[in-house]
Amino acid sequence: AAGGGWRCADGAALRWCISGTLCASFLGLGLSIAVLGPTFPTLAANVGKNVSDIYYIFVGRSLGSLGGSVVGGVLFDCMNATLLLALSMLGTTAGLYAIPWCKESLLLTVLMSVIGGSIGILDTGGNVLALYTWGSEAGPHLQALHFSFAVGAFLAPIVAQMDLKSSESEGLAGAEKTNQSVLKSVPTASAASTTPALNDHHNEGFLWSYIFIGTYILFVSIFFFVLYSKSSSARDKSKASVQKDRLAKYHWPLVGLLFVFFLFYVGAEVTYGSYVFTYAMVFAEMTESQAAALNSVFWGAFAVCRGVAIFGAALLSPATMIVMSLLCSAASSTALAFFAHYQAALWVGTAVYGASMATIFPSGIAWIEQYTVVEGKTASLFVVGAALGEMCVPVVVGYLQGRYHHIPVVMYTVFVTSIVTVLLFPAMYKLANWPQQRDLQEVSDRETRKTLLSNSRLTEDEEEEEHVREWNNADFEVIEMNDKLKNSLTDTSCRIPGDSPAEVSLQPHLEDALGNPPVVADGSPGKQNGNVDWEKSE
To answer: Is the model's pTM score more than 0.90?
Structure first.
């Protein structure tokens, strides 16, 4: 018993170690994704391009993420989860270490694709490993994963800004010395000739932000290797603990609907976060600082609500959290689409919309796990749907906004996507529960029929037993009567020689009552005329 208790404690400790390492990895995921924004101008200068000329590095990262999600989904069902995540984080570390020194745009795109592929594997595998590890209790841990991602995305610009500030003073001093030396050696030098020197030194500050994030991810990958060495079969045991008897009857249609659901949800989230700054300045006529504050309100509410959802998921079911989020999303998007010209509606609607979008993705994964088995390939489809939404919806909105300058396309987009998600979830819920309800009804009907048949058999058996008892009782009564009559006849026959005429005269009446011929002493039947002739023995 003591050994079993220790094993139970070790298993619980291992699960918590896996969950903590996953949260640390998702924090690094947020850092590695969000650091690209503030360092984008420097990376463009490194490869000798304008910012508008290297937009394809985002496409490369997105395509890499799609490929990593698909490949990771297949590999996750074939190899140990912790080992796969450790290797994917090593790939992210290698890409982050190489990017600051990259001087070719093509090579930069390849490195971004490598990082995107590693991110796709981590995003897919992290969610599935949390499900395998915690089973039906995975809700709060999934929320913790995505909260860690939001924290990482929030910290990345701060890390980059700290590196920028630490290098600005050195950069200004170096740039001043460089300008003086250039002016002395080449009096006709233009100011533009000094720009590369300034940019090169400027890149040194951002170099350390990539090194810092890459080193952090390297340490997290070491923890995954340790987990792999300690429990190489953890994946199989965890997977076996949550496997169900069979897949849902409508498994793939349900997965397809959730794929579309995530496409619209993530597309709306990224679109609003990307365009709200521009909308505030163009349509709401805010200053740059006010627009930046509005953008911060959206992402701040998003991150805070993900933190609160960790505790909410322990009290509420995933379906309840999704319904609450969808209702808040529909209400806030309606206010933003039709009442955003009021400043109060814009600020409050932005905060509520950011909070409502925070919990849908992890809650959706936890919800579908209740109805069917979520394996690597299944989870990869969810990540692919989210990545497609992130790629396609902002592009479409940007194109339409460029065509129709006076229409707030972004606000109408979030309204339409909210309506689509509100309509999709009831359809998914009905599809997930309808076969189960029908099966339960069939089981109930079968049990009722079995009960009725059992009762019918019992009734028939009882009736047969009752008939048998009645016949047995009747047989016993007949046997007893025959025994009494035989005894009486025997006694009578024994008393005939000395009996009185009155006793003898009673014999024919007894014989008539029995319906049998009289039996005399010599065994021959008597005459039927009512007079008995006795032959005297010689």
So the answer is: no
Q: What angle do CA 497, 502, 503 make, to 5 degrees?
A: 50
Give the C-alpha separation, 492 to 504, whole Å: 9
**Residues across the chain:** 538
Tokens, residue 176: 């001043």
Per-position DSSP letters for 284-296, written without gaps between them? S---HHHHHHHHH
Nearest to residue 428, comparing CAs of 309, 255, 301?
A: 255
Q: 10-168+203-231+250-432 belongs to which homologous superfamily?
A: MFS general substrate transporter like domains (1.20.1250.20)
CB atoms within 10 A of CB 408: 19
Rg (CA), the chain: 45
- What span, in angstroms and rounded, lies between the C-alpha atoms of 367 and 355? 19
**Rounded distance, CA 361 to CA 318, Å?**
10
Dist CA 236 CA 274 (whole Å):
41
Q: Which of 515, 136, 146 is CA-nearest to residue 358?
A: 146
Question: Beta-carbon neighbour count of residue 395 at 10 Å?
Answer: 13
| CA separation for the pair 386, 365 (Å, rounded) | 12
For residue 61, what are the contacts with CB-CB under 8 A and spacing of at least 6?
36, 112, 113, 115, 116, 119
Q: 519 has which bridge partners?
A: 525
Residue spans per domain, the chain: 10-168+203-231+250-432
Spatial contact of 159 and 107, defined as CB atoms under 8 Å apart: no
238's tokens: 């965890």
Tokens matching residue 233:
């079969």
Q: What is the pLDDT of residues 85-142, one digit of tens each?
A: 999 999 999 999 998 888 888 888 899 899 989 988 998 888 888 888 887 788 888 8
